[in-house]
Fold:
Amino acid sequence: MFGKRVKLFELFGFEVRLDASWLIIALLVTWSLAAGVFPYLYPGLARDTYWTMGVIGALGLFISIIAHEFSHSLVARRYGMHIKGITLFVFGGVAEMGDEPPTARAEFMMAIVGPLSSIAIGAVFYLIYLYGESIGWSTPVNAVIFYIAYINGILAAFNLLPAFPLDGGRVLRSILWGFKGNLRWATRVSAATGSAFALALMFLGVLQFIGGNIIGGAWMFLIGMFLRNAAQMSYQQLLVRKALEGEPVRRFMIAAPVTVPGSITVEQLVEDYIFRYQHRMYPVLDGEELLGCVTTRQVKDIPREAWGRQTVREAVIPCSPGNSVPPNLDAIQALAKMQQNGISRMLVVENGRLAGLITLKDLLNFFSLKVELEERD
Structure:
């Protein structure tokens, strides 16, 4: 979902990150407020004033989204769920959960608190706006305060829509889950509801675009497309998690993988191993001793003219938590490591010795077979 992310700060133990795509929405919100909304609603102010109001209004939206996601994170922690962090991206923000909620009640409480927090923030700012109106605060100040109250109301209303994985969709899933006691079924139904809502939003976006509202229609279509993909992805992630959860890495590992001696040259590695076996990562051994691994990425970084004289030992990457796992680790954790580090093969290491190799392909093949066999359920 995310591209390049930058850490902004850490609060209450949660890391807040900014995806590069957030800059798009920040600029669009600032521009639309400064050049469109505020001049239309409050004519006669100076141009610099409008831009100041636009920047502060966008900052208010930024803080409101963070507060919304923090409320999710704090309740999730209360119920023992691990939150990897909070990321702001082009379509808003998301609290990244490391696993599914333990119970339907936990999911309901975690989901509903987000819209409730937005309603509370909106109500507080609306009361401040009324107070400012009564004592004669300046128009720019009151306009921005009213916008923050209004946008929090919109955030609450939008997130309450029963479109998974929006908060309303998670509330729906928790109710279905509690009613039938089947998380997979509840996820499938709520994800289908979310997909249907997303398709409707995309259709309305097309109508808006045809009707002349080009920017609004394009945004509706893009949001609908994002929601549809997110709903489908959420269901697939649940299936993967349920298929691999509780299964040790040992069950999936290749016990006798192709290994490379550290004494050969990089040129021999390319000709005799990479071109022959067509893998992107190989364990490197010195006799029985595991030195680490070598990847095609490391080979690319070595000048072509040095391939004939540089040995694999000089290019080896030592074993680390980023490229190796123990054989008793839960397979779903190994999959998470692969996704986090952008790799498809990991060393399986036991007591400092190579026990095997685990690949993304093998994990996904197992998942595919298990889902096919259990499809009737």
